[in-house]
Amino acid sequence: IKHLLSGADLDADTATEILDTAAEMATVAGREIKKLPALRGRTVVNLFYEDSTRTRISFEAAAKRLSADVINFSAKGSSVTKGESLKDTALTLQAMGADAVVVRHPASGAPHRLANWVDGSVVNAGDGTHEHPTQALLDAYTMRARLGRLAGLSVAVVGDVLHSRVARSNVLLLSTLGAKVTLVGPPTLIPVDIAGALAPAIDVSYDLDSVLPGVDVVMMLRVQRERMNDSYFPSAREYARRYGLDGPRMRRLPEHAIVMHPGPMNRGMEITPEVADSPRSTIVEQVTNGVSVRMAVLYLLLGGNNR
Ligand code: CP
Predict the structure, then answer these.
(1) Annotated binding site
(2) How far is CA 231 from CA 225, 226, 227, 235, 236, in A?
(3) Which residues form the Aspartate/ornithine carbamoyltransferase carbamoyl-P binding domain (predicted)?
(4) Nearest C-alpha to atom 4 of ligand 1 is from which residue?
(5) Left (φ > 0), alpha (ψ -120 to 50) or beta: where does 149 sit?
(6) pTM of the model
(7) Which CATH superfamily is domain 7-131+287-302 in?
């Protein structure tokens, strides 16, 4: 594939190749000499129109560990504030020789538009409420590393599905890789058509307590208040009472089950500190794995030294 825009771009073989390559990259990260020469002479541009901590930094770390040159572009402080369009910004970056553009944008579909305007590869680092495919890849990597497989796993994705690009990409990728996904949350935050539209075998439940005893993975989503109209949102206390993962709820999970969250977290709302910091939590591992997965994505899209 030339671009990574959606979880739907990945068939099972391609996704597995990325996860296997990421596992090889992880061994590099553990070595004393952390750098590979694979992308020497290539330029990766991080084009971020929305705030990010994990994704931007891990793409930067990934590109540098592959010896690429990295240009970090943040819309704040750029000519975007003077009204320059995404297309003109993209053409400017193109003129500077970008081999890959990693883009985060508040508008769903922006990376797809960008892919029509630049010659290099485009990686979607989160577009509006639409998709975040490398987050889904690092989540799948983390599940496979902790539980040994993906096929047949039962995964509950819990909370603000409506605004979650993480949920959409995970539903697509996990379904491709043979996991069974159940979306859990209040009816106002689970779009009525999402399950069937994304993948035919998705279940929906509005009752977290009944779902927990049967899952291998519970993935808590951030409640994205910045994308909501307060009038249709329950109080934080009410939300936590019905859909927050706290200690007693965590103890309803099977012994082997893991707790995930893409970050950033609203501690005390969708997840309590007791759960987030427990041995079942993979939240810090997800961040570590994100670097290896993004190394694999850049390596495979840009072809290393050989293509
Ligand atoms: N998970 C995630 O995308 O985090 P950031 O917004 O910090 O990049």
Answers:
(1) 54-55, 82, 104, 132, 135, 165, 222, 263-264
(2) 11, 13, 12, 10, 13
(3) 2-144
(4) 54
(5) beta
(6) 0.95
(7) Aspartate/ornithine carbamoyltransferase (3.40.50.1370)
Q: Are 280 and 218 in contact (CB under 8 A)?
A: no
Which two structure tokens, joined as six digits, stand for 57? 């930094």
Pocket lining: 57 vs ligand 1, CB cutoff 6 Å: no
- Which tokens in the block code for residue 22? 């990421």
Helical H segments across the chain, by residue range:
12-29, 54-65, 86-95, 110-117, 133-147, 165-176, 194-198, 208-211, 236-243, 247-250, 273-276, 283-302
Distance 126 CA to ligand 1 centre (A): 8
Determine the 3-state secondary structure of 157 from DSSP: strand
Cα–Cα–Cα angle for 157, 50, 133, rounded to 5 degrees: 40
| Residue found by looking up tokens 């009752």 in the block | 207
Domain with CATH 3.40.50.1370 in the chain: 7-131+287-302, 133-286
Q: Whose CA is nearest to atom 7 of ligand 1?
A: 53
Class of domain 133-286: alpha beta
Q: Write out the chain's pLDDT in tens, 307 residues.
A: 999 999 999 999 999 999 999 999 998 766 666 799 999 999 999 999 999 999 999 999 999 999 999 999 888 888 888 888 999 998 998 898 999 999 999 999 999 999 999 999 999 999 999 999 999 999 999 999 999 999 999 999 999 999 999 999 999 999 999 999 999 999 889 877 776 666 667 899 999 999 999 999 999 999 988 778 765 666 888 899 999 999 999 999 999 999 999 999 999 999 999 999 999 999 999 999 999 999 999 999 998 645 4
Helices first, then strands: H and E counts in the chain: 12, 9
Question: Is the interface score ipTM higher than 0.95?
Answer: yes
- Closest C-alpha among 66, 40, 13, 46 to residue 291: 66
Residue 224 Cβ inside 6 Å of ligand 1? The answer reads no
